């Protein structure tokens, strides 16, 4: 089964008309994207968009053989003119299946957002799932056979991928292609990096793909360290890297700090951001978690873990530090980095980068700064991917 993406952008396209934002200003030439429309084997058109016939011609195809046009979502604005010879567009009721004379079968999948998803099965049994903008499946039965290809709004609804993964509908070899791309993410390297974290990719308008053919599916880094200063966006970046995966265990190392209302507000903001399917463990006992099998871990953050470890060995006291506290802390850090090296789990950890600012005025402050630098360096050495977040922008240091 052959799929041609006549467009890969949001319903408004990219760049949006008259939008002055930086993403739209740079989405020119090959980075521009028309509204998403899919041509399957030249006979099935999913979403009719303005200029579809010209887009098909540019991709070396014709719409002359199209026998069915299906819409996945309500189309706002003026009605799109139906090119001569094309059947009138329609939608299949949720749960119903449409059989084409060519041997293709199309089943409508219910969404949790206005619109309809379409599961297309080719004559040889290969399966494609196409989801509308801002849409995720309303329910996915467990134990599904993995699709060969999923075409979806990865950036807008990463939780949709999480649902499909949890049910087995996305497997290790599923080619996940991002569409409905809008100006929320800058194009180029940042888009590629953001999608790779979800095990997905983007392709230019006009690309033709063979459903079921082997593709180099992006590998999700198994161990990632996200560094950054205060309010840099490092925690948001770390959460983004796992939001397309179900059953993440969020490991909060800061505790509740009873009586500290400002800290409680911070904790509440973090919890509200996280998907409802994630669970939380408030602990600094990281080594057993890393040794166990289980869902991905998001550790936030190592700097608070270090504070706990230094408290445990009384590292703030100069005499205790010289009398064995330093050796005890080094041992704890080595145990943690050894556990990271040996873990089989997917891990994303957050830590503060504090060594680039003002030199602390106290000996204990300088000791903490130095030990955090050593911890970050040791942890990063065991990670496939290391990011530095500055002013909300993620810079790749490794991977």
Which helices and strands, and how do they pair?
Elements: E1 2-7, H1 22-26, E2 37-40, E3 44-46, H2 52-58, E4 68-70, E5 97-99, E6 105-110, E7 116-121, E8 127-130, E9 149-152, H3 158-166, E10 175-178, H4 189-196, E11 200-201, E12 208-210, E13 223-228, H5 234-240, E14 249-252, H6 261-273, E15 279-282, H7 286-291, E16 297-300, H8 302-312, H9 318-342, E17 347-352, H10 363-381, E18 385-390, E19 393-398
Parallel strand pairs: 3-4, 8-9, 9-10, 10-11, 13-17, 13-18, 14-15, 14-16, 16-17
Antiparallel strand pairs: 1-2, 1-12, 2-3, 5-6, 6-7, 7-8, 18-19
Helix pairs in contact: 8-10, 9-10
Describe this protein's structure.
- The chain is of the alpha/beta class.
- The protein is 28% helix and 21% strand.
- It has helices at residues 22-26, 52-58, 158-166, 189-196, 234-240, 261-273, 286-291, 302-312, 318-342, 363-381; strands at residues 2-7, 37-40, 44-46, 68-70, 97-99, 105-110, 116-121, 127-130, 149-152, 175-178, 200-201, 208-210, 223-228, 249-252, 279-282, 297-300, 347-352, 385-390, 393-398.
- A 7-stranded mixed β-sheet has the order 5-6-7-8-9-10-11. A 7-stranded mixed β-sheet has the order 15-14-16-17-13-18-19, with helices on both faces. A 5-stranded mixed β-sheet has the order 4-3-2-1-12.
- Helix 8 (302-312) packs across helix 10 and helix 9 packs parallel to helix 10.
- It is elongated, with a radius of gyration of 25 Å.
- The chain starts with a strand and ends with a strand.
